[in-house]
Amino acid sequence: MTSPLPLISGLADLTGRYDAVLSDVWGVVHNGVAAFPSAVDALVQFRKAGGKVIFITNAPRPSGPLIAMLDRLGVGRESYDAIVSSGDATRVMIGKYSGRAIHHVGPPTEDDALYEGLNVRRAGPEEAEVVVVTDLDTDDDTPEMYRERARLWLARKLPMICANPDRVVEHGDKIIYCGGALGDLYAAMGGMVLMAGKPYRPIYEEAFRLAEVAAGKPLDRSRVLAIGDSVRTDATGAAQFGLDLLFVTGSIHAAELDAFGKPDPQAIADLVAPSGARLAGFLPRLTW
Fold first, then answer.
1. Contacts (Cβ under 8 Å, ≥6 apart) of 58
2. Mean per-residue pLDDT, 139-156
3. Which tens digit of pLDDT belongs to each residue from 153-195?
4. Please, are residues 25 and 61 in contact by the beta-carbon 8 Å criterion?
5. CA-based Rg of the chain, rounded to a whole angstrom?
6. Helices 147-155 and 179-188: angle between axes, nearest 10 degrees
7. Pick from 44, 46, 57, 37: which is nearest to 16 by CA?
8. Is 116 exposed, middle or buried (0-12, 13-18, 19+ CB in 10 A)?
9. Is the pLDDT of residue 113 over 90?
10. What separation in angstroms does the CA of 109 have from each of 31, 86, 114, 147?
11. At residue 83, does pLDDT exceed 70?
12. Would you list the DSSP string of 181-247?
């Protein structure tokens, strides 16, 4: 990508070009601790102008509990029309193991909603038929800490269902590892890893369907904007689904891009270029 990126001051500069946005959540709308008020306002204003907003997130939980979490963080329901999560898509994968044993990796109770209503039983890796990873067990863990455990999974030829394809995420003022980083480790060791969230097609198809439901009409992909902060998931997913991307630089890529200092548009373009995404512009934080 060699052409200069469009200089925009906020989402308002793009509103007339798009009928809907598929917006990432963590790192764009909140940081895991509190909402970004300017981002929430931008989406509210976009909806007031007639646009539709679908949240598309790699959170490894069904959308119901996520809505409750957004309420707590200050992301008002007036800022979005619907939400689809990696957890929603992952439940379909887990459902194929009905009546069988699964081995869960991640926070022990936080992800209970992922299994609600599914006829699966949690068990140790010696008994399980599949490993389901929501995230690492604690925010302080690193993927390398799981290598010995992964050797046992690999010896038993257990497939891994990774409910959160993100490698890292912004949490307050820290960057922490996510389930996708453990999926990368297992794949590098030779394990089979299955994912349904971003950047994979199933979650985008569902988000696009929800956007059309909200709009009450078919939508042209050229008039649907993806908003995200990750090259690996958001940029790649947008490119593969044929959507323009508004890139939020002030989250997981903030330091390398000097997002809140003097960002170099060419450096941003070069970072995103391998994904193939069409950039509509960039902002350190989403704002109107």
1. 26, 85, 86, 164, 165, 166, 178, 180, 197, 198, 233
2. 96
3. 999 999 999 999 999 988 888 889 999 999 999 999 999 999 9
4. no
5. 19
6. 60
7. 46
8. exposed
9. no
10. 21, 18, 10, 23
11. yes
12. HHHHHHHHTT--EEE-STTSHHHHHHHHHHHHHHHTS---GGGEEEEES-IIIIIHHHHHHT-EEEE
Q: CA-to-CA distance for 275 and 270, rounded, in angstroms?
A: 10
Q: What would the two tokens of residue 16 be?
A: 């007339």
pLDDT 10s digits, 218-250: 999 999 999 999 999 999 999 999 999 999 999
One-letter amino acid for residue 35 of the chain: A
CA 47/CA 52 separation, integer angstroms:
6
Distance CA 96, CA 89 (A): 12
Q: Do the strands 82-85 and 278-283 form a parallel or antiparallel pair, or are they unpaired?
A: unpaired
User: Is the sign of the CA dihedral 57, 61, 63, 69 positive or negative?
Assistant: negative
CA 110 to chain centre: 18
| Ramachandran category for residue 235: left, alpha or beta (phi over 0 → left; psi -120 to 50 → alpha) | alpha
- Range in 3-7, 59-63, 112-116, 255-259 with the lowest mean pLDDT: 3-7
